[in-house]
Amino acid sequence: MTAVKEITLHPPHISIGTWWIIASIVTVLLLAVCMPLAPTRDSKVKVACIPLLGVVFLGGAAKLRAHDLETVLSVYSTATLAFPLGLVGRGKEVRKAFEDEKLFGKANPQPKLTNQLLIAVCGMLLVWAWLRCG
Predict the structure, then answer these.
(1) 105 Rama sector, left if φ>0, alpha if ψ -120 to 50, beta otherwise
(2) Residue 66 gets which letter from DSSP?
(3) What angle do CA 9, 73, 81 make, to 5 degrees?
(4) How far apart (Å, rounded) are the C-alpha atoms in residues 87 and 128?
(5) Residues 69/16, Cβ–Cβ less than 8 Å
(6) For FRET with 101, which of 14, 54, 72, 114 sits at 20 to 30 Å CA-CA?
(7) Could you give the CA distance from residue 83 to residue 88 in angstroms, rounded to a whole number?
(8) 8 A C-beta contact, residue 19 and residue 74
(9) Radius of gyration over alpha carbons of the chain, in Å?
């Protein structure tokens, strides 16, 4: 008889310093992918405020719920990374949505863009859960 070897995939331990580096890289990636997609100065300012709002929100939530810095940085990094992953390669759809909103007051649904964003958000949620819970 042969013995069956159990294979488990344990998440890596990521230090606080590494999380800071990851969060910085993810922020730059978010701005590099999303800023060119924003058609107006006003929308570019809104995109530029996303990381700041994320830090403020997560900082407040961490204070209220007594989360450690590692948890906050992991949530920020994975949540922020979902947006560039969800938008990459969908520039035409994003620009069309912005233009429709400008012309008609609301954006028409872009199914492929919506699906890619949904998959990216769900995927990053699974990555975060794996990193935090194993």
Answers:
(1) left
(2) T
(3) 75
(4) 19
(5) yes
(6) 54
(7) 8
(8) yes
(9) 18
Tens-place pLDDT, residues 74-133: 999 999 999 999 999 888 888 888 777 777 777 777 888 889 999 999 999 999 999 888
The total of other beta-carbon atoms located within 10 Å of residue 24's CB is 12
Pairwise CA distance, residues 51 & 31, whole Å: 9
Give the three-state DSSP class for 28: helix
Per-residue DSSP letter, 47? H
Q: Give me 31's structure tokens.
A: 């701005």
Question: Are 78 and 128 within 8 A, CB to CB?
Answer: yes
| Residue entry with tokens 């998440």 | 11
pTM of the predicted structure, to 2 decimals = 0.80
- The residue written with tokens 């230090």 in the block is 15
